[in-house]
Structure formats: structure tokens, C-alpha cells
Amino acid sequence: MHPVMKEKIGVSLRGITKCYGELRVSDGIDLDIFEGEFLTLLGSSGSGKTTLMRIVAGLEFCDSGTVLLQGRDVTHLPPRQRNVGMVFQQYSLFPHMTVAENISYGLNIRGWKSADAARRVKEMLEMVRLPEVVGRYPHQLSGGQQQRVALARALASSPQVLMLDEPLGALDLKLRKQLQVELKRIHREAGTTFLFVTHDQDEALSMSDRVAVLRSGRIEQIGGTREIYETPQTPYVADFIGEVTLLPCMRAADGRALVKGTTYEVPVPSNVAAAQFDLVVRPEHVLLSASAQADAAPARVAEVHFEGGSSIVQVTLDAGPALKARILGMPDLSTRAGAPVWVRISGASVGLADS
Is the pTM of this model over 0.70? Predict the structure, then answer.
């Protein structure tokens, strides 16, 4: 987490509402973003994340509510009066300009002297580790290089907030992974507040200080990446973030919990006091063994999916419910489809009280 995060609020949204006809895409949203923070708006298509970012940028105006940048009310101001930067999935570089001309374009409009602008271009290209492309044109760059140049251009004028709308979405998976690391490094070095928009859960968890999960124009949950993943507050967040199985449970007389419809008992999560709850079970919470173990239930392997460094093993308890377990590497013969196994759920799982 960035060291300045809790000292000052960079962006404050209060009661943001936006409608397109009868469709409400922002529904009374309140949100504070700290200076220097990397905050991600995460949600499925139509959740309102891009609209909210565009309202912060001034590309859209809210129907009601207030937008504050460093305490200044910018609700009705155009983008040029907000001191914000934007990077899109489409790189939007000027094809007839060199890299240096692209990066210095905004500086020239702001009246920078040519020597100062040239010095800033050099600084930005060093930050994104592309000093050698200064005289090239966009068509002479790879997609990853173009995106880093677009990032350098957006940061050149020292915006208060840099907004990134799915900037890695057009890149192949390997390059996206590389640029995720680069983008986090650039954020750390620049110290600028980043507002990032994505529908990719892995991307959000690997890069962000905090994540705001949006659903139907509202913030379903906001918190640190581990908090969002390990302690989801609603079934929607639990299901949206990573692989999960929700097991309906009820407390047993011995203080443990019984998975409904089975005789299988599991540890009661410390975060719920309700008599009935859903147990949030991630693949890493499911432990498999080839022989009977204490607190384990008999099951059978249904499917195995190899994912490179690990495998997802789907198992079905003899009593009915299906679970997913993650194991390193390729499964051995004892965890192939059809094999009998024993399943134990670790005490790391959390619960969601029945509504």
C-alpha cells in the first residue's frame, strides 16, 4: 500500500447518480480515493465502472452528486480544467507524430518551453523504459510499446489523477502480465493517484491497493485486495472474485457446522454468528488425500483441469455437493477423473450469513 494513502483524499465522490433514460448506471455512489493510491473499479460489463471513471474525468456529467479533486469542486468543469490524465485500451497516439512529439503535445499546449518539454520527454521515456524509441512513429512500435508511450504522454503533465480504462485489454496474455508489473512499478515511481478500470479479477488483485467491486451502478464492496478475496461481504463478491463454492451450512450441536443435505461437518467460521450461513470455499481451502483422514469426507474426482503451474480438481462429495481443489502441477493417478478421494475443508474459509 502506498505510504501516503491515508494522509489525504485525492478524489471524493458524493451521491453520484447517472441515468441513461430509465437505465441507472450510477446509483448514489460515495467513494474516496487517497492521494497516491492505486484503486481499481472492478465489475462485469454494464456494472457502471467506466461511466463512473468518465464522470471523474469530466467526459460525462452526473445527474446529481459532487466530484471533488483535492477538495476542489469540479462537478461541472470540463476535462481541461480538472488536471487529470487518461489512458485507454486504444492507444490513441497521433500516427503522424514521433514518440517525442506525441508526449510533448500536451506540454506544448500548456506553454512549456521547448527545452523543458524535451527534458520532460526524456524523463518520461526513461520511466517507461523506452528511451530508444524517442524518434520513432507509432506504427514502428509494438502494442506494448505503444501503450507505454501513451502512459508516458498521460503522465508528462503531472496530472492529479491518472485514469486507465482497461488499458491492457488489447494485449496478449503474456504481454499483459508483463505490463501489469511495469504499470505497478511506474505507479510507485510516479506517485500519482491511479484510477484503474477492468473486468479482469486477476488483474485487479495483482495490481491494486484497493478494489471497489461494482454491481448495477452501486459499490458492492470496497477494500484491500486480500480483504476482497479472503473476506467477501456478499455472495456476489465471493462468486465474482476467483473460483469459489458456496456451501449452505447450519450449526450442529457440537459447535461445528453441518453442510446441508449431508453428514459432513466443517469448522464454523469466526466471522459469523448466525445459525445458518453459506461457507465460502476457495480451491486452496480444499485439501485432498488418497486415504481417510480426520475431519475428511469421502468423495470422487469428477474433472481435472491443468492450468500450467497448477491444476483444478473438481470433486463430488458422496453426499452430493461439488467442490474445487487446487493442487500444484499435474495431478497424480490418485486424483484422476473417477478416482476416490477424501476431502477436508481448512479453517481458512469464511461464512456469509443467510439474508
Answer: yes
